[in-house]
């Protein structure tokens, strides 16, 4: 991912919800906005996630921080609706969308969503009205230094450390005197120098963090690519259960947007094009159309009828004289085994095939598929 230095030049947006416990005013969703440069988060409680509601909430956020140049979101209908797209065009915002079923593209916002939900889950035991205390949870998140930047989002945005509750307690204990004010010009110059210094430090820390994260990810990653026109299978969640996914297709690759992003169309219906990450694709290998079936006798028949000759498998001599015996048997044991093979050539054979000495009947009482509950596989097994 590119390293953004200008605050709120690129932002990531996402929606949390519906929450199991609504707020006192009936809000069940949270719109989250995270800045790529400073990791500064914003969160707005919503009653619904319709396009007009989401657009109005984003406008309220942008009136405080300004309109971004790029905005990254998933392909939800509230972000891809004509109303939202028209708003981006009027405001000069370039809309970026993540690939379907690949939340790693918007990993910055997804990580913040997980942290915010943990804070709400821990806080809701004491107070049911989580909307009232949502600004307090955001304040606590903004004053904590980030692992990638090594600075807090508040300090990167405003150029100074936030004066939080612990600072108030410390000042009360120490009884420190407040410093005299400085001229406006001197304060502005120092602030600009401070922000430029922080931007350099943050860029170095981000490059180091990204190198470590890439090295960790590449340990088990392998490079894969597909050609235009190649048939592939797509890993998509099932309609019955979104937690279960299955390979569906075949699809045909139409365009390659990048190193890891492809546009595919269904071979059955080429009108709709979908964009998928390479992790959701695998090559499709066509099987031969002719299938050789083996039939078993019906249950009511008493006398088994002879098996039909399988196509491509003709009866061949048994070749018992070509059977290889283990060297561990010894000369005497090998002679006895060879004598046994020659005495019963209709039973033993050196060639693979089938026997007419016995018939195995497979009962198939119906066409209902067998259902097995899903369970997690260890990483080593994967």
UniProtKB/TrEMBL annotation:
PROSITE patterns, per the entry: INTEGRASE
UniProt cross-references to SUPFAM superfamilies, sorted A to Z: Ribonuclease H-like
Organism: Leptobrachium leishanense
Domain of life, per lineage: Eukaryota
Protein name: Integrase catalytic domain-containing protein
Domain Integrase catalytic: 3-161
GO molecular function terms attached to this record: nucleic acid binding
InterPro entries attached to this UniProt entry: Integrase_cat-core (IPR001584), Integrase_p58-like_C (IPR054465), Retrovirus_Pol_polyprotein (IPR050951), RNaseH-like_sf (IPR012337), RNaseH_sf (IPR036397)
Region listing for Disordered, in residue ranges: 363-382
Gene3D superfamilies assigned: Ribonuclease H-like superfamily/Ribonuclease H
Biological process terms in GO annotation: DNA integration
């Amino acid at each position: 991912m590119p390293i953004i230095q200008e605050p709120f030049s690129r932002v990531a947006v996402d929606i949390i919800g519906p929450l199991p416990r609504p707020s006192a005013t009936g809000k069940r969703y949270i719109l989250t906005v995270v800045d790529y440069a400073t990791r500064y988060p914003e969160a707005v409680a919503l009653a619904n996630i319709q396009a007009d509601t989401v657009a109005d909430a984003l406008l309220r956020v942008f009136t405080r921080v300004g309109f971004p140049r790029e905005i990254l979101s998933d392909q939800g209908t509230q972000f891809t609706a004509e109303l939202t797209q028209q708003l981006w065009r009027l405001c000069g915002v370039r809309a970026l969308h993540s690939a379907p079923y690949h939340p790693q593209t918007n990993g910055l916002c997804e990580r913040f969503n997980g942290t915010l939900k943990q804070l709400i889950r821990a806080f809701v035991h004491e107070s049911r009205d989580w909307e009232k205390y949502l600004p307090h949870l955001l304040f606590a998140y903004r004053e904590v230094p980030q692992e990638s930047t090594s600075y807090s989002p508040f300090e990167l945005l405003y150029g100074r450390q936030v004066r939080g509750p612990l600072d108030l307690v410390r000042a009360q204990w120490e009884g420190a005197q407040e410093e005299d004010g400085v001229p406006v010009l001197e304060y502005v110059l120092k602030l600009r120098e401070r922000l430029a210094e922080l931007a350099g430090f943050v860029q170095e820390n981000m490059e180091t963090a990204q190198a470590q994260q890439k090295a960790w990810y590449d340990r088990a990653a392998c490079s894969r690519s597909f050609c235009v026109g190649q048939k592939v299978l797509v890993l998509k969640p099932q309609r019955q259960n979104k937690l279960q996914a299955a390979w569906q297709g075949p699809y045909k690759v139409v365009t390659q947007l990048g190193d890891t992003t492809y546009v595919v169309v269904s071979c059955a219906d080429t009108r709709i094009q979908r964009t998928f990450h390479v992790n959701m694709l695998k090559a499709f290998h066509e099987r031969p159309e002719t299938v050789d079936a083996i039939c078993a006798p019906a249950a009511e028949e008493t006398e088994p009828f002879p098996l039909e000759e399988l196509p491509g498998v003709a009866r061949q001599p048994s070749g018992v004289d070509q059977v290889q015996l283990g060297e561990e048997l010894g000369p005497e044991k090998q002679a006895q085994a060879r004598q046994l093979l020659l005495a019963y050539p209709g039973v033993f054979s050196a060639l693979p095939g089938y026997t007419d000495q016995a018939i195995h009947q497979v009962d198939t009482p119906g066409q209902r598929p067998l259902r097995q509950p899903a369970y997690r596989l260890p990483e080593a097994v994967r």
